[in-house]
Amino acid sequence: MNDNLFSTFAERMNLRLDKTFIETPEGRDYTYAQALALSSQLAGALQALGVAPGDRVAVQVDKSPEAILLYLACLRMGGVYLPLNTGYTASEIGYFLGDAEPALFVCRPDSLNDAQKIAKETGCPVVETLGTEADGSLMEKAAIAKPFEGVEPRAGDDLAAILYTSGTTGRSKGAMLTHGNLGSNARSLTEAWRFTESDRLIHALPIFHTHGLFVACNVILMAGGSLYFLPRFDADAIIEAMPRGTSLMGVPTFYTRLLQDDRLNADLVANMRLFTSGSAPLTADTHREFEKRTGHAILERYGMTETNMNTSNPYDGDRIAGTVGLPLPGVEVRITDADTHAPVPDGDIGMLEVRGPNVFKGYWRMPEKTREELLEDGFFVTGDLATRDERGYIQIVGRDKDLVISGGFNVYPKEVEQIIDEMEGVVESAVIGVPHPDFGEGVTAVVVPAPGASLSEEQIIGALSDKLARYKQPKRVFFVDSLPRNTMGKVQKNQLRETYKAIYQDG
Ligand code: AMP
Q1: Residue 43 reports pLDDT greater than 70
Q2: Contact criterion met (CB below 8 Å) for 406 and 441
Q3: Residue of the nearest CA to atom 23 in ligand 1?
């Protein structure tokens, strides 16, 4: 039996050859038949360029339908797809190519010179280009290649992709994902979220990350639906697409920005059946406001590069604001004492660990890191702190490394942020720990005030004094216009810690 994920996709693609798989606003559309055909041309081109099964294909290109077909081509011929964030600089790319040793690097047409230089330095033998208009040398090679119409046999635990984690501390690690990991999660999400061939998913996420690449595209391929591909988040384009869309997968900032637009209302979303959110915490406020405006409760789920998706609020049943729902079928979740890995009682905060067919195989060429985080009993230590309520719903409290330890006491930033966020005149906040001569770390709040609001440091500290134990109260409060976020909407607390690292040093 062939466990290549592409065989599963191909079976489903062949059932609906005339149906649209990907559409773009410019009308650069592909039916399933055309997608199958171009994937075989591209797979043929990869083989002709010397890529063998098991070889990595590193790809740093802008979002386009052809980039997804390259991913499919790579699966099809047994290659290991390695997408790279389009924001990475040449020197960062040097690290990834050196570490992953790909057989081919596909870059943007205008980065060819830099890419060739880095490829030479790192020993990557071939560089090709792919543009956003179906242009570039790889497309030219695909047009004349002998198509590869088969599907390379793969076992379930053979690698399908390597995705480097964003790595806010230390070196970025390559998470090795197998055909079995991706297939099991795509099946499970398709079922849990009721995706069918009638779905037309509005796709505005980047495709170098697990959310936009695997969650969105693999689910649509499993279900036989269509993708409406936007190059990036653009409220106007999304609002224009809603009347013909059925679903939207977003990061929380998609929803906060949509809520700023008066055109968002129940009429606009009459054809939509599902809005999902993940990759960063969705505030309970945004959840409630979205429901009030549209009648839809956003379905929040939780996952990560290493594990695919782990938990989800239910499709039918209560979607509880501020929680990430229940474990997906086949996924085991335990919340443990970070030192002993022994489960803590429900309601206590502990380290979230997961086990299941979705959990990756390990970090590329980092056996020690893998041993630290992927335990012998198969549980993966996510680095996220969480609690579980009596109904089994899980709440993420924050990243382990964002925990503040002040005077020997643990301060969970989210608890402090939630109270600050509820204050009149506050848009949002981030609470961090920075070195403090007496306390080890000093609790510090960085606050975004609403336009026109006049808030002072004393006011915020004063308002918290009867709500939080003294050790949890921020010692300093800073005001900023906006919090630093990455492309997935995650607040970059490491950057904030760097900015404010010296504030307690002079006394
Ligand atoms: P990444 O590997 O880039 O997908 O990042 C995974 C991390 O994003 C997780 O370990 C969590 O810290 C965070 N994350 C993902 N989904 C959620 C969510 N729904 N709520 C809170 N944090 C989330």
Answers
A1: yes
A2: yes
A3: 280
CA–CA distances in Å: residue 406 to residues 129, 183, 401, 431, 505? 51, 44, 14, 13, 15
Query: At 47, which amino acid appears?
Result: Q
Locus of tokens 């410019």: 26
Strand 380-388 versus strand 394-399 pairing type: antiparallel
- Give the C-alpha separation, 180 to 156, whole Å: 4
Residue nearest to atom 4 of ligand 1 (CA): 304
Pull the structure tokens for residue 340.
């002993």
Residue list, ligand 1 pocket, CB within 6 Å: 165-166, 210, 278-281, 300, 302-305, 324, 382, 384, 396, 399, 488
Full DSSP string of 357-405? TTS--EETT-HHHHHHHB-TTS-EEEEEEEEE-TT--EEEEEEGGG-EE
d(CA 4, CA 155): 7
The CA-atom distances, in angstroms, between 211 and each of 215, 395, 443, 452 are 5, 20, 32, 36
343 CA from centroid of ligand 1 (Å): 21
CA of 303 to the centre of ligand 1 (A): 6
Q: Which residues contact 62 (CB under 8 A, 6 or more apart)?
A: 86, 108, 131, 132, 231
| Alpha-carbon span 46 to 139, nearest angstrom | 11
Ligand 1 center from residue 113 Cα (angstroms): 35
Q: Residues 416, 468: contact at Cβ < 8 Å? A: yes
Q: What is the pLDDT of residues 130-166, one digit of tens each?
A: 999 999 999 999 999 999 999 999 999 999 999 999 7
How far away, in angstroms, is 384 Cα from ligand 1 center?
8
pLDDT above 90 covers a percentage of the chain that reads 90
396 Cα nearest atom in ligand 1: 21
Q: Which of ligand 1's atoms lies nearest the C-alpha of 211? A: 4
184-197 burial, b for 16+ CB within 10 Å, e for fewer? bbbbbbbebbebee
> What is the structure's pLDDT at 168?
56
Pocket test for ligand 1, best of 380, 490, 491 (most atoms within 8 A of CB): 490
Helix extents (H) in 77-178: 90-100, 112-122, 137-144
d(CA 108, CA 320): 42
Q: What is the pLDDT of residue 169?
A: 56
Cα separation, 314 vs 326, in Å, equals 7
Mutate which of 305, 396, 492 for ligand 1 pocket (most atoms within 8 A of beta carbon)? 396
DSSP state of 230: -
Residue nearest to atom 7 of ligand 1 (CA): 304
The C-alpha atoms of residue 325 and residue 323 are separated, in whole angstroms, by: 5
- Give the CA distances from residue 364 to residues 109, 310, 370, in Å, rounded to whole numbers and listed in that order: 28, 22, 9
Q: How many CB atoms lie within 10 A of CB 255?
A: 22
